[in-house]
Design a protein that fits this description.
By secondary structure, the protein is α/β, with parallel strands linked by helices. The chain has 2 domains: 41 residues; 168 residues, ABC-type transport auxiliary lipoprotein component (Rossmann fold). It is built from 5 helices and 9 strands. Strands 1, 2, 3, 4, 5, 6, 7, 8 and 9 form a 9-stranded mixed sheet that branches. The longest helix is centred in the first third of the chain and has 34 residues. It starts with 5 loop residues before the first helix and ends with a helix.
Amino acid sequence: MINPIIVPMRCNIRKTILLLTLLIIIFSAFGCASRRADEIQTRFYTFEYDPPTVSQKPFVDASVKIERFRSSSFYESNRIVFKKYPGKIDSYFYHRWWSRPSELVTYFLLRDMRSAGLFRAVLPFDTDMPHTHIIEGYIEEMYEKDDPDAWYAVLSINITLIEADTTDPVIRGQRSEVRGQRALDHQSSIINHRSSIINHHRLLFQKHYHQTEPCVSKTPLALAGAMSKAMAKLSELIIIDVYNRISR
C-alpha cells in the first residue's frame, strides 16, 4: 500500500527538478545571447600614426586649400572592403572605418601638411579664407587584400594640384562684395565664378600614388595598422611633391 504522504513529496521533487532545469536552460540561453552580442558588436577603426617628418626645407609663401576627397562607389560607405578572389569585392558588416575613406584621407593629409610647416597656411575645404593653390583627391583603392598566406592593406590615391585664380573675388576672400549686389547680379556673379574656376585655374600636376603594406595578422585591427603605415608613406610623398611643384 502506497503511503499517501510520500506521493505529494515525489510530485514536489519532480516539480523542483523541472523548475531548476528550466532555470538552467534560461540562464544558459541568456549567457549565450550575451556572448553572441559581444561577438557581433560593431567595431570602428581609424588611422593611427605620427605626422611624417619632412626634411627641413625653406618656407614657401602659399596657402593650400584641400578639397574634400571623393572616392569610387566601392568606398562611399564606412564598411571595410576586402578582396579574397579576383573580380570579387566584399565588405564587413561589423567592422567599419570611423568615417568614410574619403573623409579619413582628407583629414589626415590636412593634419600632416599643417604639421610639416612648409606652407603659409593649409586650409580645409569648407573655408572662405583666400588661398593660392587647391588640392583635389580621389580614393581609387582602399581595401584589405586577403591572400592565402597573408593579408595586405592596399591604398591608392589620385592627387590633382591646381593653381587658384587669384583674380577671382571668392578666391581672394572678398565674398562681401558679391553679397552686396542685388539678387540678379548675385546669380550672374555665381555663374561667372564657376566659369572662372573652369577657365582660369591652372593644372600643375596630377599624379597617382599607390602603397601596399602587409598586415601583422589576419584581423581587421591589423589591417587598420597596415593601412595607417600606407597612409603615412603616401602622405609624405604627396607633401613633398606639392611643395616641390609650388616652390619652383
